[in-house]
Each structure stands twice: as C-alpha cells, then as structure tokens.
Amino acid sequence: xxxxxxxxxxxxxxxxxxxxxxxxxxxxxxxxxxxxxxxxxxxxxxxxxxxxxxxxxxxxxxxxxxxxxxxxxxxxxxxxxxxxxxxxxxxxxxxxxxxxxxxxxxxxxxxxxxxxxxxxxxxxxxxxxxxxxxxxxxxxxxxxxxxxxxxxxxxxxxxxxxxxxxxxxxxxxxxxxxxxxxxxxxxxxxxxxxxxxxxxxxxxxxxxxxxxxxxxxxxxxxxxxxxxxxxxxxxxxxxxxxxxxxxxxxxxxxxxxxxxxxxxxxxxxxxxxxxxxxxx
Length: 280
Known about the structure:
By secondary structure, the protein is mostly beta strands.
C-alpha cells in the first residue's frame, strides 16, 4: 500500500506527456500516483523502480517526488519557518510545497525565520502536517557513547529538570539542571558532549569540555570576575552554589577546580571571607 509521508520504492506503470504514474502493485491503487515530468529521471521507462516521497499537492491530490524531504512520517527534524499565515506557520521541508504547522500544534507562537523542532504526522484531512509536540517522536537508539560530541537543538526548558535537546534533530537528550549555567533558550543550536547514556537510551549532555581542558577557560573566567570586583572577591571558595552560579555561571565543583588552579599558579590568595588577586 502506498503511504503518504514516506519514502518508498514504486514501479513505473504508465507514461504520459506530463509525467509518469507509479504503483506498488496494490489493486486498490491501480491508477497509480503521478510523478511530474520535471521530476522524472532521464531514461526512465515502464517497469523501472523509483524511490519517491508521497505527499499532497496544492490541489489536495496525492503526488510523488524524487526530491528528498527533510522529515518523513513519524520522524523529527529542525525546520525553518518560511511564512506565518492565518491558519498557522509554513515550514521549509525541502519540497516545492511547504509544510503546515497549525497554531494548535505550536508550543509557542513561531516567527518567520525561526527554527523549530517538529514531527511529521497525518491530520484528520489526510494531509501532512507538523507538530512541535515532538518529545514522543524522538528516538532513543542513538549511536553515541559517553564522551562523544554531537550537534543539538534546545526545544524545551524546564528549570527543575534541565534543557531538553534533540541531538542531531532526532535523538532524546537532556542538559541536566546542574549544567544550566549558560542561559540557554529554546531554539539554541548547541555543540554537546555525552556525559551518560541512560538505561533507556536517552542521553545526558553537557556543553562544557572535559574537566582537564575546561579548567583553563574556567580559570580565565574566574580571574576576569575577580578583576571586575577590583581584585577582591567578597566571598571565598566556600560560597553557596547559588552565588557561584549567579556570578560565574559555573557549578561549584568547576569553580573550586578553577580557584585551585589559580591558587597553584600563585595568581590568587584565599582568606576567610574573600579571594584576592595577587599582583606581581
């Protein structure tokens, strides 16, 4: 059975001046589906098999294309908003016809030029549509292991849990609450490192480098803040995690590693109530 929203192999059954008709051999679809002439590969003849994607054109007719869509049925992708209309937003899915994202399927009102994570589904009118309620569509079978790096897209933030990230636009990922020090926003595209692969296949992530290399940039950051306080920080390395997060956007452990590094290099001294820069 030919399925809308999916890439499938179909056989050429008829040729016309305006294109060719394709079928999977199912008697219910005996008339086949049209592949417009401009989409037909040169040299194609009756009996050949072509890999095509099925969707509905502007006149609501099922049609085939050899163009590769950016998302297929039941899958997710990060797509750009091309236009916003009275019925919703239209997204670039890589085809001649844009993909409708109805207002009721938006988790926030999107704007032209914005990128958003969506899943592709078939609506009640048997047309393809997008939804931003995509969490359930994300996959948990990523090829990544602890320490691997990947590209991610922040699609939801829960202050009590963390930032939900679509890794490569298709896999479940989370930057836990303890890592939320950089002011992430929905729509941010981030480079992430896998810190843990959970038992269910979902990924815990961080945007920070491994501790050994991150310590240098953290130390520079701490020293910069100390200098902004005229060389005397009004608290020491025993400050609360909340104070450290507010002033440095670092975890307490990362802050203590950076302070220890600066202390070892002789750049600071720690008193009962402060951290002081040592002028050389």
